[in-house]
Design goal:
Helix content: 25-40%
Number of strands: 12
Order of helices and strands: HEHEEHEEHEEEEEEEH
Structural class: alpha+beta
Number of helices: 5
Length: 225
């Protein structure tokens, strides 16, 4: 009987510690998801994943976790639909004191990446022009002097301003620049850094790398629900 007790008790204690660790991590994940959702426009859902085991032990020792991922789905910014906005951060430093007092505060990150996938049809509707997105390029379709004109070009983003700049025109001899269209997504800055742009089928993917926690996200993470 003693041998059985000696074997079982440590196992139970370890399991209890693991359950407590996972519960704490789950709580922190839910708080981070809530903060991000409170900062960005309304969406259909938010989630966060903290990749760290043990969670509490690592926080007590170094105050850091290896990786944090936050995903926000179907953000609606007036007419524009952002299918998903993802925040990936590594070497994340959380404030230990605040964490153990029921708050989640981001102090620093080693590096991170923010990715936003914008729905092409909703963007075209917001612009008010027939703009179609295919892998690698955007097409502006417009009727000029009774002629169907197609202008193909690139997409650039600066802040929240999205611009489609035609490089060639088919159907009529007009300057490509005359068919340039743009739209500024209203509200908070979607990507707080210079974005790389990738045109995909029926959409645009924006991404940028960060080495510091963006001030707006720090504010969101530190605020109360």
């Amino acid at each position: 009987m003693r041998k059985w007790i000696i074997l079982v008790i440590p196992t139970v204690l370890v399991l209890a510690l693991v359950v407590g660790d996972q519960a704490a991590k789950g709580w922190a994940e839910s708080k981070l998801a809530e903060r991000a959702a409170a900062y960005y426009p309304p969406g259909s859902g938010s989630s966060a994943s903290i990749h760290s085991f043990p969670f509490i032990g690592r926080l007590l020792f170094s105050g850091t976790v290896p990786q944090v991922d936050v995903n926000l789905d179907d953000l609606k910014v007036e007419a524009v639909l952002i299918h998903r906005l993802s925040i990936h951060a590594s070497d994340v430093k959380l404030n230990r004191s605040d964490l153990f007092h029921g708050k989640v505060r981001l102090d620093d990150i080693g590096q991170g990446k923010i990715v936003a996938t914008i729905d092409g049809a909703s963007l075209a509707k917001a612009i008010g022009v027939d703009v179609r997105f295919t892998p690698g390029e955007a097409e502006v379709h417009k009727r000029i002097q009774g002629v169907e004109v197609t202008a193909k070009g690139k997409v650039t983003v600066k802040g929240n301003l999205i611009t489609v700049t035609p490089m060639s025109v088919e159907g009529l001899s007009v300057p490509p620049s005359s068919l340039t269209v743009s739209y500024r997504i209203p509200g908070v800055e979607i990507l707080p850094c210079q974005a790389d742009v990738k045109v995909v089928q029926n959409g645009v993917v924006l991404s940028c790398a960060v080495t510091d926690v963006p001030a707006a996200l720090v504010q969101a993470a530190q605020s109360e629900p």
